[in-house]
Amino acid sequence: MKISPAEKHQSADIARLIMEAMDLDCCQYFAGPQHNLHDFELLMTTLVEAENSQYSYRNTLVALNEAQQVLGACVTYDGKDLRQLRKAFLEGALKAFGRDFSAMEDETQEGELYIDSLCVLKEFRHQGIASALLKASIEKAKSLHIPAIGLLVDKGNPKAEALYQSLGFTYKNDASWGGHPMKHLQIIFRE
Asked: How much of the chain is in helix, strand and coil states, percent to nearest 5?
């Protein structure tokens, strides 16, 4: 297995992984009652292919096997860029679904490399792939001289929280995303 920056041709695989990380019920919420998950997947693939989107392949690390199959993906970006990067999603959702999410709360802020989405294909879980993606993301934050790396974890997902804590993430505060109660976890780098 190898961790590397994503390439544009992997966008459809990455989009499906992001959707799984988001939770399919949440994806359906964003698509609305008049649209289905396939419609949302088309939007997400377009957003991953885009250069200036929070979900862009340019913000993504992938785990690949020897056959170059995408086994997992981790999407990260500098928190200070969230509002600029989110514009592509807001415009895409409005155009595709007629839904306005411009009042959505910020899930990150300046001074944090934000882990937006992390997912590994089900058949490859529990093999250290998520840990490898997270470790590579931690190194990315350090190389960019961003003072912290953070993420939101669903309060109902103690296994994921335990994984993050095993890599040094600690509780910062309670948060909410997509109507789900979350915990904001962070690693602050000491200079």
From this structure: 45, 25, 30
Rounded to 5 degrees, what are φ and ψ at 152?
-110, 135
The string of pLDDT tens digits covering residues 124-138 is 999 999 999 999 999
CA distance 136 to 46: 25
Q: What are the beta bridge partners of residue 60?
A: 75
Query: Going edge to edge, which strands form the sheet with 170-177?
Result: 2-5, 60-64, 70-78, 113-120, 148-154, 180-188, 170-177
| Cα gap 74→72, rounded to integer Å | 7
In eight-state DSSP terms, residue 185 is E
Q: State the virtual CA torsion across 34, 38, 39, 42 in degrees, nearest 10.
A: 170
pLDDT for 62-93, tens place per residue? 999 999 999 999 999 999 999 999 999 999 99
Burial 152-182 (b: 16+ CB within 10 A, else e): bbeeeeeebbebbeeeebeebeebeebebeb
Contact 89, 53 (CB under 8 A): yes
Q: Are 165 and 185 in contact (CB under 8 A)?
A: yes
The CA dihedral of 183, 101, 55, 28, to the nearest 10 degrees, is 80
Closest by CA position to 47, among listed 94, 86, 21, 77: 86
Tally the residues of the chain. Answer: 191
